[in-house]
Amino acid sequence: MSTTKQFDVVVIGGGPGGYIAAIRAAQLGFSVACVDAAENAKGGPALGGTCTNVGCIPSKALLQSSEHYEHAGHSFADHGIDVSGLKLNLGQMLKRKDTIVKQNNDGIVFLFKKNKVTFFHGRASFAGAATAEGYPLSVSAPANETISAKHVIVATGSNARELPGAPFDEKLILSNTGALAIDAVPAKLGVIGAGVIGLEMGSVWRRLGSEVTVLEGLPVFLGAVDEQIAKEAGKLFAKQGLNINLGCKIGQITPGKNNVSVAYENAKGEAQTAVFDKLIISIGRTPNTNGLAADKVGLQLDERGFIAVDGDCKTNLPNVWAVGDVVRGPMLAHKAEEEGVAVAERIAGQHGHTNFNTIPWVIYTSPEIAWVGQTEQQLKAAGIAYKAGTFPFMANGRARALGDTSGMVKFLADATTDEILGVHIIGPMASELIAEAVVAMEFKASAEDIARICHAHPSLSEATKEAALAIDKRTLNF
Ligand SMILES: Cc1cc2nc3c(=O)[nH]c(=O)nc-3n(C[C@H](O)[C@H](O)[C@H](O)COP(=O)(O)OP(=O)(O)OC[C@H]3O[C@@H](n4cnc5c(N)ncnc54)[C@H](O)[C@@H]3O)c2cc1C
């Protein structure tokens, strides 16, 4: 019988919240273990969670590959590059994606070794109440261990939400897992849910040749995005051929032998039936507390099934913390990481901090959409007096040289103090451009601060400076 191994900190879950918390805790001098259940195709460990295995990383790999394919087919000719005999090698595209995932999996194994984090491959569950040694935890096969922890950080992530009556089979009805591994381009692809994941996955398969129909329940498109930006996105996606239908009520979903039929009511209340070769369901994600035995120790969940935490990620149990997708707040990898670091620092008696007002959001479609802070509709609803300034990429020299002039940068600043309250970007490399806005908001910068900073020419970031100038109607190039 194996003896109980004792640790200062045990992290349950090796996704971005968990593995980063484990590394930071080890840096702070604690003895740390991380337990993760995910396995690769060969049954070995697959550290990195949803993000690395079936989320951020593989989706961005396929978005990049499919964008190259689309450019080669449609926009290279304009650059004077004639491509003949263009052919899709989907097998190679998926293999490249898998290689990138594996590099990330292996990278975390290396980081654990470097930081002396002990890794256990298996599922961890609470084995009973805390003793003098801490919380006893059992770890299932292949590790088969009993360990104890003075502090437990739960970072067990989330799972794709199913539609009632339409369980994922990952052959016809796909979650993100299946959507990232379709082995032949479906002629007709249905996507239920026009959120971030639905739009990203829909874009990948549209670029590769699918006719994509998106069915969204809400009457508005991208409700969390600034209205002006969402409207622009809607127009651009429609022009690309993404068929987005809002205000749909989904009815019976019936898988056949090689296709799946979806009965729904459109926004006009008309009964419709659509038949797809594959159907992706991307209607949100549910917190994952499966197999944790939370009830054994009385770990409290909230009414939506998330682990209940306070602003510092403390649960109702002493020395048990929870971070990432399994707790309230945006389901984003970088939010999970920030919480992981903050909790490790709090355990060490430091003042870890996560600023929820400056968490950037990105949708990696083409053009990309990125924002930080408040939208115009939020400011209006809160009765905050603001000034708005926009600058179109059409008037930016670098965007013209790139051949990607769609979209704009938009600044929202306090009408009295000029403090930046929100920055919204739709356009090329919005995911990178947003970092300047995040830094500015962290330092409570005014729009004038950005307007006075020298930006390299020609660069997309000049559009950011110009949008800041637009706050006071002083754009120089538009
Ligand atoms: C298709 C897709 C694309 C995405 N793209 C982005 C993006 O571009 N940017 C972004 O910021 N976010 C993106 N996300 C969201 C991002 O993946 C999540 O927010 C992030 O992974 C959450 O991290 P986490 O550490 O909380 O949980 P997870 O990454 O879900 O990791 C949890 C880990 O815990 C393990 N686990 C669960 N229970 C146990 C247990 N009892 N014992 C041991 N191990 C356990 C799981 O196997 C998993 O490995 C995307 C998500 C999807 C699905």
Descriptive notes:
Its EC number is 1.8.1.4. It is found in: Cytoplasm. The active site is at 457 (proton acceptor). The chain is of the alpha/beta class. The protein folds into three domains: 5-159 and 286-354, FAD/NAD(P)-binding domain, CATH 3.50.50; 173-283, 3-Layer(bba) Sandwich (FAD/NAD(P)-binding domain), CATH 3.50.50; 358-470, Enolase-like, domain 1 (2-Layer Sandwich). The protein is 32% helix and 24% strand. The protein has helices at residues 16-27, 49-54, 56-74, 90-114, 176-179, 196-207, 227-240, 294-297, 333-347, 376-382, 397-402, 430-442, 447-451, 461-470; strands at 5-12, 32-36, 117-121, 124-126, 135-139, 145-154, 158-160, 173-174, 188-192, 211-215, 243-245, 249-255, 260-265, 271-276, 278-281, 285-287, 320-322, 361-363, 368-373, 386-392, 408-414, 420-427. The strands form five sheets. Strands 1, 2, 3, 4, 5, 6 and 17 form a seven-stranded mixed sheet that branches. A five-stranded parallel sheet has the order 8-15-9-10-11. It has a five-stranded antiparallel sheet with strand order 18-19-22-21-20, with helices on both faces. Helix 3 packs parallel to helix 6. The chain is globular. Flavin-adenine dinucleotide is lined by residues 12-18, 35-38, 49-51, 55-56, 59, 123-124, 155-158, 176, 197, 288, 291-292, 324-326, 331-334, 336, 364.
Number of domains: 3
| Count of DSSP strands | 22
Task: Give the helix proportion (percent range).
Answer: 25-40%
Strand proportion, as a percent range, falls in: 15-25%
**Ends distance:** 74 Å
CATH topology of the largest domain: FAD/NAD(P)-binding domain
Specify the overall morphology.
Answer: globular
- Mean pLDDT equals 97
Query: What is the number of helical segments per DSSP (H or I, 4+ residues)?
Result: 14
Provide the CATH superfamily of the largest domain.
FAD/NAD(P)-binding domain
Instruction: Catalogue the ligands.
Output: flavin-adenine dinucleotide
Biggest sheet architecture: 7 strands, mixed
**What would you say the CATH architecture of the largest domain is?**
3-Layer(bba) Sandwich
Unreliable sequence segments: none
